Amino acid sequence: MTQQAMPPAGAPRTPPSGLFPSTRTRPTYREPHAVRGGAVAAGAGAGAVWLLAFGVVDSTVNGYVYWTLLAGGIGWLVALVLAKVGDRGVAAGIAAATALGWSIAAVVVGVTWLTRGDWPLW
Question: Less CB within 10 Å around the terminal CB: N or C of the chain?
Fold first, then answer.
């Protein structure tokens, strides 16, 4: 009897019968328009610059908050359009920057209200 070379560790000794498939049979689903990190960063940067440009228009807390709300609303509309027909990564970045900008405006309103004792948005 001649000695045969041993197969590498982990290799099947006999060919698979087909009863237990050796390859993956489940489908792999991939996003047709994947969101990339660079696009999200570009959208976040553009959204931040957009909100900053509107936020410095007025020097009062009241004006800052209203301008920020207006800029954020326009930003959300642009993000909705981009999510539907454009780059969804940029849309996600704009939406995230808008949410952050609105949160900052809410904190400014809260701190102003607590320090002055008067609601600043009237």
Answer: N
